[in-house]
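Quick start: read one record
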Amino acid sequence: MNPQRVVAIWLLYQSMKRRRIKRKFWTISLRSSFSSQQT
């Protein structure tokens, strides 16, 4: 993973933590982003 991708995911995670979005949604979005990167 490139640093820019890590920073983007970290900022997204922080904002989602503040909004208290369900963990299930975070897991699905993270999983989809990882799977799309492996191609």
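Helices lie at 3-19, 23-37.
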